[in-house]
C-alpha cells in the first residue's frame, strides 16, 4: 500500500505516519494487563491496610476498657487502705491483736546514756464507745410492760444518733 501525496500533507498525513498501517491490539495487551495489575494491587493493599487499622482500633478500645476497670479497682483499693489507716481503725485493730498504748518513752543519747525514765506499758481500760440512746433503752427497759410504759404502737420522737462535728 502506497501513500499518496495528499495523505502525507497536513494533519491527516501526520496522523497516518504515527499510526501503524493496521489496528494492533497485541501491542496494547501488556500495557492493559500492567494497568489492571497495578489497580488490583493497590486495592488489595488498601484492603490490608484498612484491616490492620481496624485491628489496632479494636485493641485500643479493649485496652481503654481494661484501663478503666483497673483504675476503678485501684480507687476501690485506695479507699480500703484509707479506711484501714484512719487512727481509730488502727487503734481498734491493735486492741484486737492485744496491743496496748505505750508508756513514756526513754531515749538513748549518742554517748550511750539514757534520757528519760522508761515505763512499762500497761493494758488500761479500753475507751468505751458512747452507747446510743436505743441501746440504753434496751438495757434499762422493764421485763414486763407496766401501765406507765408507752404502748408499742407509739412512735419514738428521739432523733437518730449523729456523730460529733456534723
Question: How would you sum up this structure in a few lines?
Answer:
Keywords: Cell cycle, Cell division, Membrane, Transmembrane, Transmembrane helix. By secondary structure, the chain is mainly alpha-helical.
The percentage helix is 40-55%
Major sheet: 2 strands, antiparallel
Question: What does the oligomeric state look like here?
Answer: single chain
Total helix count?
5
- SSE pattern, N- to C-terminal: HHHHEEH
Proportion of residues in extended strands: under 5%
Question: Layout of helices and strands, plus pairs?
Answer:
Elements: H1 5-8, H2 10-18, H3 29-84, H4 87-96, E1 107-108, E2 114-115, H5 133-140
Antiparallel strand pairs: 1-2
Amino acid at each position: 500500500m502506497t501513500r499518496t501525496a495528499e495523505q502525507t500533507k497536513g494533519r491527516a498525513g501526520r496522523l497516518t505516519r504515527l499510526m501503524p498501517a493496521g489496528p494492533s491490539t497485541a501491542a496494547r495487551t501488556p500495557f492493559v494487563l500492567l494497568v489492571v495489575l497495578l489497580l488490583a494491587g493497590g486495592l488489595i493493599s488498601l484492603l490490608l491496610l484498612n484491616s490492620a487499622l481496624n485491628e489496632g482500633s479494636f485493641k485500643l478500645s479493649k485496652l481503654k476498657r481494661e484501663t478503666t476497670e483497673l483504675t476503678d479497682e485501684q480507687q476501690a483499693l485506695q479507699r480500703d487502705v484509707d479506711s484501714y489507716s484512719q487512727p481509730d481503725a488502727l487503734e481498734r485493730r491493735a486492741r484486737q491483736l492485744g496491743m496496748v498504748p505505750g508508756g513514756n518513752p526513754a531515749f538513748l543519747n549518742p554517748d550511750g546514756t539514757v534520757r528519760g525514765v522508761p515505763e512499762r506499758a500497761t493494758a488500761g481500760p479500753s475507751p468505751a464507745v458512747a452507747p446510743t440512746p436505743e441501746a440504753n433503752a434496751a438495757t434499762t427497759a422493764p421485763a414486763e410492760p407496766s401501765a406507765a410504759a408507752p404502748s408499742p404502737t407509739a412512735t419514738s420522737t428521739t432523733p437518730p444518733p449523729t456523730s460529733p462535728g456534723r
